[in-house]
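Supplementary Methods S3. Input chains for the assembly prediction are listed below.
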Amino acid sequence: MMPDATPLASADAISLDAISKRYGRTLALDAVSFAVREQELFALLGPNGAGKTTLLHILSTILRPDSGTALIGGMDVAKNPRAARQRLGIVFQEPSLDDRLTVRENLELHGLVFGVPRKIRRARIEEMLALVELSDWAAKPVRALSSGMKRRLEIARALIHDSKILLLDEPTVGLDAQTRERIWAYLRRLRTERDITVLVTTHYIEEVENCDRVCIIDGGKVLALDTPEALKQAHGQSLVRVTPLTEADSAAISAQYPDRLTGRQGTELTLASDDAFIAAFLAEFGTRISALKVEVPSLETVFLSLTGRELRDRAAGAREQTFAFGKRGGEHTR
Amino acid sequence: MEWHRALMVQLGGLYGLWLREVKRAFRDRGQLIGGVSRPILWVLILGIGLNPYFRGEVYGAVTFVVPFTYLQFIFPAVIALNIMFTSVQSAVSVIWDREFGFLREVLVSPLSRTTILLAKVLGGTTVAVLHGCLVLILARFADIPLTPVDVLRALGLMALLAFALTSLGVVIANRIGSFQGFGVFSNAVILPLYFTSSSIFPLDPALSRAQTRVVYPDWLVTIIEWNPLTYAVDALRGALINYNQFDPWMGITVIVTACVVLFSIALYDFHRM
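Predicted structure tokens for the full assembly:
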């Protein structure tokens, strides 16, 4: 779905203006500004520690920004947090269900806490359970659920009250491919059925292809924001992966195209390419390679060209640990 | 009526969170086993076992005459003990909520933090009073005749005591970073408070203050006199076996003060978090 299909008249569901947040000496968010349109499926893409979770915590009013303003449906989250929370449905990265209560009890509690009148609450609980296909599990304790089911339950829970905007922090992390696909299917369905805006953070690049717009964030800065197609056109780079026959061939190719060389794994080389290059390359080295694979621009290559590194799961480095510490400190301790 | 609607949301949330606390407590088998076994061990085993040795005679001279048996004497204290264990245990779930994310779900709700904390404390209070009632059921084994008025007075005191102790538990839970297990609380907070509250032995009521300090070690008397729980247990004794070691008004004053002060501290901490 192209963003142009969204009527321009529609107001912004979320708007961020120069949001900054610092944890000690680390700048977690550096003047982040962007807007999410109503009924958009908006992805925030970035590696662990990019500032995605911090941003979501600011939007969900549990963390105050050092500077800048964040609006949820026109409501300033710092000035009017309770009104903002009424409109938000939030699925945090770590599950926040009560294990000892049943599936239905968890939803019931959420409805009570958000002041949803009994009749609407009952009806919506059934409706949401059906949506996430957990109706048969309603009377089971949450403890008995798999992690994928828990995630689905959390999505259902975030929609028990009149949430207009759904914030999800890495909703698919740690889930198997099938469950991940299912969760995305729910999100897409929700947007059409309930007219809600969805902001989702992820570091799985393949997942954002179906989103309306993608915001790439790293080191607390917005690097790019556009539709997946536009990002690919603007920043994407075609690549060829070649497997030379021998070490010597590999060395010869590297020597010939030092500027185009973007990666090397053993003898396998990755070269920046375009149509003319492939023809010229094959003419010269066609007999000295065993395989050649052309990679068209993907969001993976977009990310690579924007940040200079690949988006992969990494172990938490010192920086991420600082973030994690700050996150904890910002909410709980002191 | 905007404020009316807002109030209803807070009350609904209060009810929901209170119900959660109560439901959770009854699904926790360990807590239930403790709640049942403690009164049985303390009242039936320790109480009945020590009953014959509880006499007013020391070294051949009658120094104090008490109008009750040991079983009767210890009974109100066991109620306090059961309440203490349960209250603090409920409060400690604050740590679980914090570490396992449930607290966050509530913090992003329209509920005020006061409502959230009040629900937690009231939930803990309810469960603790019910656990206190598990002891109360044994009243006839301890040979304590109770009128409905006695029971109501006792329940009132138990509720106030439970409220104060749950608040205390929340204050402690908020101040400790990590959870090392409930044993820490039981050994560092509950049992010391319990043993130094004149719960399992009386200070001789026939003695003057000066004489008491001669008969008993000075430090022990001082600790007992400074322990607020002493006065709470004393108030419960007043209600159940009609015996007070201290001024009857002292107990209720101490408990109510503890409720107000401890809940205020808990509230302050929670708002600052």
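The longest strand of chain B covers residues 57-58. Chain B touches chain A at residues 5, 8-9, 12-13, 15-17, 19-20, 23-24, 27-28, 98, 100-111, 177, 272-273 (CB under 8 Å).
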